[in-house]
Amino acid sequence: MHFYGFSQKPFDAEPDLESLFLVKSQTEALISMIQGINERRGLILISGETGTGKTTILRYLQTKLPKKVKTVFISRVSIFFKEILKQITRDLGLPLKDEAPGFFLPQLRAHLAEGPGRNENVVVFVDDAQNLNKENFEDLLFLSQIQEGGVRPLQIILAGRPELETILESEGLRPLNRQIQTRLQIQPLLPEESRLFIEQRLQRAGRSSGEVFTPEALELIVSQGRGIFRNIIFLCEKAFQKGLDLQQKVIDAATIWKILAEMDVPCLEEPVSSQEITNRDALIRRLFQNPPRIVKPGILAEILSFLKVH
């Protein structure tokens, strides 16, 4: 990356949670999740296409919640609910004295029963929840309905691809679906937001988009990235690799087209003129009264303080 004068790798797939790129829609989702946790709603659903940043948002929220909110992050969904219970028990710091199937639940219930008295809240994040089986969904519903003195000591946030909502609408899972009080959708970035994301990553590495991409190349990345973080990061990373091979200091649209051709993209679009993209973005801005804006990560501390999360 020294060829382009970067001080660090600009498009690392692992997000930096301390300088996270947040747009208005994502911040609204964070606020809604915080409110759901604060009000102890039991079940929260967040859905979005692969690569839109669901996991990153959950991880970010996990790091920013106060210490009195205990968190468990389940990223590998097991087919056995016992394994899920075991992780929750372990991550809450409870002793694993017995691994018999009936041990974890009574121990967990006993711990949760004491939570409200300690002004403690427990949040379990379940990522890739669309991979849960029917029995695990039913068991999670049971956990979410545990109450002590009319208070829910455990909140569960289910995150997954859009088909998660379809799964929850199936006949056997309707009781769980009815219990979900907060439903959130993470939308792909708008074109303007995609440009801002690329610019932020480049500036963090000591450069700007105008120094390393022609306007046409940038717009091609934006259009082919389709507002998906993962796609944009992949295309930009490939662009710099290809540019280095070609000794191209400023990457042009032809280079991006070569990358797309090598990827054998099934829905490869024809080149879009800058004027067409400008017209399209103008239409998007007219359709949305509040134009997209970047939100500084520090604002979440203010939100947490304002909502007095407990």
The global form is elongated
Indicate the CATH architecture of the largest domain: 3-Layer(aba) Sandwich
Strand content: 5-15%
Fraction of residues in helix: 40-55%
Number of domains: 2
Order of helices and strands: EHEHEHHEHEHHEHHHHHHEH
Describe the structure.
There is one protein chain. The chain is an alpha/beta fold. The chain folds into two domains: 179 residues, P-loop containing nucleotide triphosphate hydrolases (Rossmann fold); 102 residues, Helicase, Ruva Protein, domain 3 (Orthogonal Bundle), CATH 1.10.8.60. It is built from 14 helices and seven strands. A five-stranded parallel beta sheet has the order 3-4-5-2-6, sandwiched between helices. A two-stranded antiparallel ribbon has the order 1-7. Strand 4, helix 5 and strand 5 form a beta-alpha-beta unit. Helix 1 runs parallel beside helix 14 and helix 11 packs across helix 12. It is elongated, with a radius of gyration of 22 Å. About 8% of the residues have low confidence.
